[in-house]
Design brief:
alpha/beta, single chain, binds 2-phosphoglycolic acid
């Protein structure tokens, strides 16, 4: 039985006051962490403020980090710095970072190793673009991402990993993959993990869907067998909506 995980990805949104308003409401309203993992991945500037105020049932994540322990990397943030703040999750390889900030499969791989070294739980993003989808290349692209991104990781590490399947054509576009397409691709990811590691690992790894998830479509997405949660951008900025979407995951544990 995989525990559902709902994570908000705030991207470059929310000042400190806005983050505080959000967390005071959400802390009280999210369900028990024994049933669902609720995570907010926030900008670096508000991580400490959120960690200090997180309630029993909310966890905080970053949206990126560097793969080195320390060094002359102007503007970057390291895994030990995140640990030091009390952050527990980190998104690695989001498609916006791959497309706009030179993130490659190789740097994603180094960052995953680094996250595990510092006991941060990585949320690894994979997914195809519209061109890949239209040319039937989805499985090939995702297989390549998984092989390169997970290279050298142990079965134990991959069992603890969260993978977010985010078709690039569905991110911020209002165009969601149908629940069937999302489930089919998540099933393919699980099968590939089974081939790369073991059946046991593939049954343990949690796979989220991400891309225009909203209050009105989350239930049917989470009803799918291979979708264990959601990575939510735009709709996670609203505290009430975030809580509604976390509560939708309770249906999976009934
Ligand atoms: P979206 O973003 O929900 O706004 O489409 C998802 C993401 O980029 O993680």
């Amino acid at each position: 039985m995989r525990k559902p995980i709902i994570a908000g990805n705030w991207k470059m949104y929310k000042t400190r006051d806005e983050a505080l308003q959000f967390i005071y409401y959400v802390n009280e309203a999210v369900p028990s962490k024994d049933l669902v993992d609720s995570v907010i991945c926030a900008p670096f500037t508000v991580l400490r403020c959120l960690v200090k105020r997180q309630g029993e049932n909310l966890r905080i994540g970053a949206q990126n980090m560097h793969y080195a322990d320390e060094g002359a990397y102007t503007g970057e943030i390291s895994a030990p710095m995140l640990r030091d703040l009390g952050v527990e999750y980190v998104i690695i390889g989001h498609s916006e970072r791959r497309a706009m900030f030179n993130e490659t499969n190789e740097t994603v791989n180094k960052k995953l190793h680094q996250a595990f070294k510092y006991e941060l739980t990585p949320i690894l993003c994979v997914g195809e673009d519209l061109h890949n989808r239209e040319n039937n290349e989805t499985e090939c692209v995702i297989k390549e991402q998984l092989h390169l991104n997970l290279s050298g990781l142990s079965s134990e590490q991959v069992s603890q990993l969260v993978i977010a399947y985010e078709p690039i054509w569905a991110i911020g576009t209002g165009r969601t993959a149908t629940p069937e397409i999302a489930n089919e691709t998540c099933a393919f990811i699980r099968k590939t993990i089974g081939e790369m590691f073991s059946e046991e690992v593939s049954q343990k790894v949690r796979i989220q869907y991400g891309g225009s998830v909203k209050v009105n479509n989350i239930e049917e997405l989470l009803a799918q067998e291979h979708i264990d949660g959601a990575l939510i951008g735009g709709a996670s900025l609203n505290a009430q909506d975030f809580v509604t979407m976390v509560k939708a995951a309770l249906n999976k544990v009934k």
